[in-house]
Specification:
This protein has about 220 residues and is mainly α. It contains 9 helices and 2 strands. It has a two-stranded antiparallel ribbon with strand order 1-2. Keywords: Cell membrane, Ion channel, Ion transport, Membrane, Transmembrane, Transmembrane helix, Transport.
């Protein structure tokens, strides 16, 4: 909804020129300058400025992070697909209602029989590697899966911190704490350069009679 970027262009720019400048700046990224810094006059100086290239991709990156965060949960759900049934049946087996308790016990027995049959089928596997894996007891598998999922959660959290660090171009892994300290201290984006609202963009314009485009 609306325009992702609004450029303040020279007065001689007509409306199509303004739209072209806005589209170009949105695609090629903009850069941030402190109030006491001068606008770069050539390509060498422009390479030394701090570019802001995360506004265009923030939605995609956040969606990707959400999907990555869901992976450990998916691994746990797939690896322990019978465990919720067992826990639910065991919980319902303690209900005073006799009829409901009998149904829960029957479901619990059926699930245990299915696990037993599955284990028996796995023991007939000829592959030695699969046989070693299948010989692991179910309770040991659940325990190993639990620790593996915990490691995935920790790795996911640490990895996303470093992902955001490189994504926003920060030199510190504590950029979140630094940003919070800046907010508490009342330091705005104009002095910190964190998520700036006003940035600069260089657009080369070729005019009639000029050999080199003007900046």
């Amino acid at each position: 909804l609306g325009k992702p970027i609004q450029c303040w262009v020279p007065q001689e720019f007509k409306h199509p020129w303004e739209e072209y400048a806005e589209n170009l700046c949105w695609i090629q990224n903009t850069y941030f300058l402190l109030p006491n810094e001068d606008v770069p006059e050539d390509d060498i100086e422009e390479q030394q400025v701090k570019y802001v290239g995360y506004y265009q991709w923030i939605v995609i990156v956040l969606a990707g992070q959400a999907m990555i965060s869901w992976v450990p949960y998916l691994v746990w759900r797939v690896g322990s697909k019978r465990l919720p049934i067992l826990l639910k049946s065991a919980r319902e087996a303690a209900i005073p209602d006799r009829e409901l308790r009998q149904k829960a016990v029957s479901c619990l027995v059926a699930t245990l029989e299915e696990i037993s049959e599955s284990t028996a089928r796995q023991k007939r596997v000829k592959s030695s590697l699969k046989r070693i894996f299948c010989s692991i007891r179910p309770n040991v598998k659940i325990t190993l899966l639990f620790f593996f999922v915990r490691i995935l959660f920790i790795g996911n959290s640490v990895g996303q911190i470093y992902l955001m660090k490189h994504f926003i171009g920060s030199n510190s892994s504590y950029f979140g704490i630094d940003m919070l300290n800046n907010l508490i201290a009342g330091r705005d984006w104009e002095s910190t350069g964190q998520f700036p609202r006003v940035t600069y963009c260089t657009v080369n314009v070729r005019k009639m009679g000029q050999i080199k485009p003007a900046r």
